[in-house]
Amino acid sequence: MLLVSGSGPQDRDETIFGHKPFLVLADRLTRQGIAVLRVDDRGVGASTGASGEEDTDDFTSDAAAGIAWLRRHAAIDARRVGVLGHSEGALVAADLAGRDEGVAFAVLVAAPAIRGSELVVEQVRALVRATGRSQAAADAAAAAQRHIIQALLDAPADAAAAREVLRRAIAEAGAPAADEATLRQMTSPWYRHFLTLDPGPLLRAVRTPVLVVNGGRDVQVPATPNEPALRVALAGNARSEIAFFPELNHLMQTARTGHVDEYGAIEETMAPVALQKIGEWIGRTVAEH
Q1: Which of 124, 85, 119 is nearest to 105 (CA)?
Q2: Contacts of 164 (CB under 8 A, 6+ apart)
Q3: How far apart are CA 102 and CA 153, in angstroms?
Q4: CA gap 244, 77 in Å, rounded
Q5: Which residues, given as ranges, of the chain have pLDDT below 70?
Q6: Which residue spans of the chain are classified as CATH 3.40.50.1820?
Q7: First to last CA, the chain
Q8: Whole-model pTM?
Q9: 2-115+198-288: which CATH number, 3.40.430.10, 3.40.720.10, 3.40.50.1820, 1.10.3470.10?
């Protein structure tokens, strides 16, 4: 099976804050006889080809090439090749499974189910709450973020002009000024495309067996409103399953608050309960295929 990483340039282990989630996951799966392909993203490690103009559709094309490579491999049963994606990678995995009926199964970890522009707003709300601040403070921060995101959605295609629009919107919202690197990231083709991305149609198109594993302390893909949206989108797939673990964060670690600042301080890379669920579900699904 192929592993697809989340947002941003990632190496094959999805290394983050000293953790290597994909290495741990691959170890768990290979021990039960499942071959795993991990890849460096464009421009990372041993991979080339990054231009800075890529968006999620390009990452889907890259993942499709990984699936094709596995199918050609002499040691792999081409009929039982699946894909696992984390965070934005879950959208890539869902897109692949929906487009390619030959994908035997899909596992979506920390999977978003609401439009990118709404997800970014809900991330801000959840992050503020995770710091212990009031719901009113979280709602105010979310409203400010919504103003900024809407300005970006309405901004000209030209990146320089869009950055000027962003600067004004950030000031109007009363938010801290963003540095040039942040402004460039927010006006990048990837980010602007991500804001318009609606996971609903991608999830509804999946007819292959699919497992979703999400956490209740995930501040990057908050349970509310993502979990209800997931259930609605996958309601038509009788071979779908949603596993929701209340104490897990975005990296599938057992967390106290779920805040990003905790990631590196938690010794656990992936919670055993998540590893077990993924491994057992894949083993059972592959055996039935």
Answers
A1: 85
A2: none
A3: 36
A4: 30
A5: 51-53
A6: 2-115+198-288
A7: 14
A8: 0.94
A9: 3.40.50.1820
